[in-house]
Specification:
Phosphoribosyl-aminoimidazole Synthetase, Chain A, domain 2, 60s Ribosomal Protein L30, Chain: A, EC 6.3.3.1, alpha+beta, four-stranded antiparallel β-sheet, PurM-like_N_sf, globular, about 25% strand, about 375 residues
């Protein structure tokens, strides 16, 4: 028996891995500009950093993340072409929060068995989303873990690097009294809170492959709506002549929900009341809350409820920034104003994830 046969008998098929690479190669190569050297398949991705010499004082920004239990939905209906965009949204859109332009990304897929078409669908989705955000996909790894993962199980993660001028970093230190907070619309659940989603469905006896009148289709299909990509439109606002300098901080509304993520990008001592009446949460959130017998308000610490990003903007150009982002295809609207006046903040959420930030609470009722 050859060593290759022994490895295959153990559950690792290196030939299947090679086929997967061939299937994804063109999509990955399409993300490569002249800065990427060596093509697909090397031990390490190479990126020509001489392009950074045009920066006066460049800072590198990096982020890493995964998709979480949303993957269970893709596995339930054997549809894997959207998960890649979810990964890029979770990773690359965190980089633009500090004002950075993404440069390159790598991905990692662990699976019980390499199914070439499935792996290629995932990576093609990653590559297409990388292209949409101006990010080079310079490398990745697919690893079979037979015996540790079931044959059709997989998980995916990624990491990305970007660059920003040191004097252009966005953050709480730029925020001022009177700044306007703009909400930027989400495309749905994005990739957060799916453990709660799956719990709600399981408790109600609803299968992921079932049709739901409340949700308006096959459950997994509706819930697999990919994460919206914000990097390109936000960079246009940050770099565009009429709006450059208007944005003081950005928040990506991911794990932790609405108030906590906004509080992270406000300075200590500041506060804001976010007006729920300024938007109507999409059907998917209303349907899930109805199935659970709960209120929308009870899920504000888990789901984005229709707000994927916040932008904290100088008051004089807030309307212009909102108009610009809306014109780029993502509805954007004001939800409140930052204040530093003395206030009892006991009922506010203050800071999050180790950040001693500002104070946020949601007030009023959602629009119908």
């Amino acid at each position: 028996m050859s060593s290759a046969d022994t490895y295959r008998d153990a559950g690792v098929d290196t030939a299947a891995g090679d086929r997967a690479v061939e299937l994804m190669k063109s999509a990955v190569s399409a993300t490569h500009g002249p800065e990427v050297l060596g093509g697909v398949g090397g031990f390490a991705g190479l990126f020509d950093a001489s392009a950074l010499t045009r920066y006066r004082s460049p800072l590198l920004a990096t982020s890493t993340d995964g998709v979480g239990t949303k993957i269970a939905l893709a596995q339930a209906i054997d549809r894997h072409d959207t998960i890649g965009q979810d990964l890029v949204g979770m990773v690359v859109d965190d980089i633009v929060v500090v004002g950075a332009k993404p440069l390159f990304m790598t991905d990692y897929i662990a699976c019980g068995r390499v199914a070439p078409e499935r792996i290629a669908a995932i990576v093609t989705g990653i590559a297409e989303a990388c292209a949409a955000t101006g990010t080079a996909l310079v490398g990745g790894e697919t690893a079979e873990h037979p015996g540790l993962m079931a044959p059709d199980d997989y998980d995916v993660a990624g990491a990305a690097t970007g660059v920003v001028e040191s004097d252009a970093v966005l953050g709480a230190d730029r925020v001022r009294d009177g700044d306007v907070v703009l909400a930027i619309e989400s495309s749905g659940l994005h990739s957060n809170g799916f453990s709660l989603v799956r719990h709600i469905l399981a408790t109600a006896g609803i299968g992921l492959a079932d049709h739901s009148d409340d949700l308006g289709g096959v459950v997994a299909d509706v819930l697999l709506e990919p994460t919206r990509l914000y990097t390109s439109p936000l960079l246009q606002v940050l770099e565009g002549t009429p709006t450059a300098g208007a944005v003081h901080s950005l928040s990506h509304v991911t794990g932790g929900g609405i108030a906590a993520n906004l509080a992270r990008v406000l300075p200590r001592g500041s506060w804001i009341e976010v007006e729920r009446s300024t938007w109507s949460p999409p059907t998917v959130f209303r349907a899930l809350s109805s199935i659970a017998g709960s209120t929308l308000e009870s899920s504000e610490g888990t789901w984005n409820l229709g707000v994927g990003f916040f932008a904290v903007v100088e008051a004089e150009r807030a309307a212009l920034v909102a108009e610009t982002i809306t014109g780029l295809g993502i509805p954007t609207w004001p939800v409140g104003t930052v204040s530093t006046s003395p206030r009892d903040l006991d009922s506010f959420e203050q800071g999050a994830k180790g950040v001693d930030g500002g104070a946020v609470r949601l007030v009023g009722s959602y629009a119908g």
